[in-house]
Amino acid sequence: MIDLHAHILPGLDDGPELEAESLAMARTAVMDGITILVATPHCLDGRYHNFRDSVQLACNAFNSLLAEEGINLQVLPGAEIRFAPELVEQMDRGRLMTLNDTGRYFLLELPDPFISHVVSHIVFQMAGRGLVPIICHPERNKMIQRDPEQLRAILAAGALSQITGGSLTGQFGRRARETGIRLVKAGMVHFMGSDAHSHKSRPPRLADAFKALGDLVGSGAAEVVRTVMPRAVLAGEPICDRHRDIRCFSRDHRVNEGKVTGLRRLFSHGSLKL
Ligand SMILES: [Fe+2]
Question: How far apart are CA 268 and CA 255, in angstroms?
């Protein structure tokens, strides 16, 4: 599995402080079936400013340590970038780390509250530069919890979205879980990451969450989120329109229940049979 969101590099943010903790996280990830993990330290959040050069250096050092310890995990560079006034300028200066440094996709964390048309405007500006923001953990944002449609305008401007695996398994409480399920069913989720911060309380695990996603949308759709989407991100390749709504891949009619029932009702009055 690929985990596109984890705070694993030691001493950079509110993730692990020491190398030993980072290594414990790496071992947990491998045990869970994660083979590639993108290290995404916080940036521009008012507290941590992990810019591109320092993330790359820390990532190289940690990969050397993993090799020394014989841990079979590949760690790639990334960042979790807060929506901030200096976002566009810093991106234009090349100081912000995109996922796997391909210059295409980056994790964007929304503040709480946010103004959706301002965010949409910036997303649109980014799209003009060939950049695709991936809104991370929208299901944990209070504004989106109150009104999930707030996310739709931002996605329409060119963003994608990533929920946290632990939200689906209930780790972040009832509201995050319910909102996560709602966003998945509305076709507004494209990725799932662990957002790991430690090896015990917030570990880099995704297997259970993907099982929960499979139960929700069917194994075909969950597989798109698990493999097709993150591979495109790591390669910096565009994502086709078909993959932007995982419900297209769902054989499980529970997701499309409303649609199917509606069609059945329509056709039951005519000669066509479903
Ligand atoms: Fe995070």
Answer: 21
- Residue 196: phi and psi, rounded to 5, are -70, 145
pTM: 0.90
Give 227 Cα–ligand 1 centroid separation in angstroms: 20
The one-letter amino acid code at 201 reads: S
**In the chain, what are the domain boundaries?**
2-268
CA of 129 relative to ligand 1 center, distance in Å: 24
Judge whether 4 and 233 are in contact, CB under 8 Å. Answer: yes
Distance 82 CA to ligand 1 centre (A): 10
pLDDT average per 10 residues of sequence, the chain (274 residues): 98 98 98 98 96 98 98 98 97 98 98 93 96 98 96 96 98 98 96 97 98 95 96 95 79 45 37 32
Calpha distance 274→155 (Å, rounded): 32
C-alpha 39 – ligand 1 centre gap (Å): 10
CATH architecture label of 2-268: Alpha-Beta Barrel (3.20)
- For residue 236 the two structure tokens come to 């910096």
How many angstroms separate the alpha carbon of residue 266 from the centre of ligand 1? 45
